[in-house]
Design goal:
Strands 2, 4, 5, 6, 9, 10 and 11 form a 7-stranded mixed β-sheet that branches. Strands 1-3-8-7 form a 4-stranded antiparallel β-sheet, with no helix packed on it. It has strands at residues 3-7, 10-12, 18-25, 33-39, 46-51, 57-59, 67-72, 77-82, 91-99, 102-105, 109-113. A hairpin with a 2-residue loop joins strand 9 and strand 10 (102-105). The protein is globular, with a radius of gyration of 13 Å. 0% of the residues lie in helices and 54% in strands. It starts with a strand and ends with a strand. With 115 residues, the protein is mainly beta. The protein is built from no helices and 11 strands.
């Protein structure tokens, strides 16, 4: 059974930074595409960023230039560095792992951007 555990969320002021982590267990982490999604209350879940097993990345339009996704296969962990945070970035952030027909989700971590 694959488990994904997110951490690093919290309350931050506009313009601040946070780094989210997602630790995976129970699988060959390096094979998986890893993504971060987010969901605000009353909104649909949206893609934040993704990184392939080979290290290629993609981002949601509003995150480009502010967020950076990375992975450390030795630590079975994917990271999301978020800079210049805005109130509209407030949401629950979810880690996702996918490989073929297999896909898994973490429980989410809350990010609140407010002064």
């Amino acid at each position: 059974q694959v488990q994904l555990v997110e951490s690093g969320g919290g309350l931050v002021q506009p313009g601040g930074s946070l780094r989210l982590s997602c630790a995976a267990s129970g699988t060959i982490f390096s094979l998986y595409v890893m993504r971060w999604y987010r969901q605000a209350p009353g909104e649909q879940r949206e893609l934040v960023a993704g990184i392939t097993s080979g290290g290629s990345t993609n981002y949601g339009d509003s995150m480009k230039g502010r967020f950076t996704i990375s992975r450390d296969n030795a630590k079975n962990t994917v990271y999301l560095q978020m800079n210049n945070l805005k109130p509209e970035d407030t949401a629950a952030y979810y880690c996702y792992a996918g490989w073929g027909l297999k896909n898994y989700w973490g429980q989410g971590t809350q990010v609140t951007v407010s002064s």
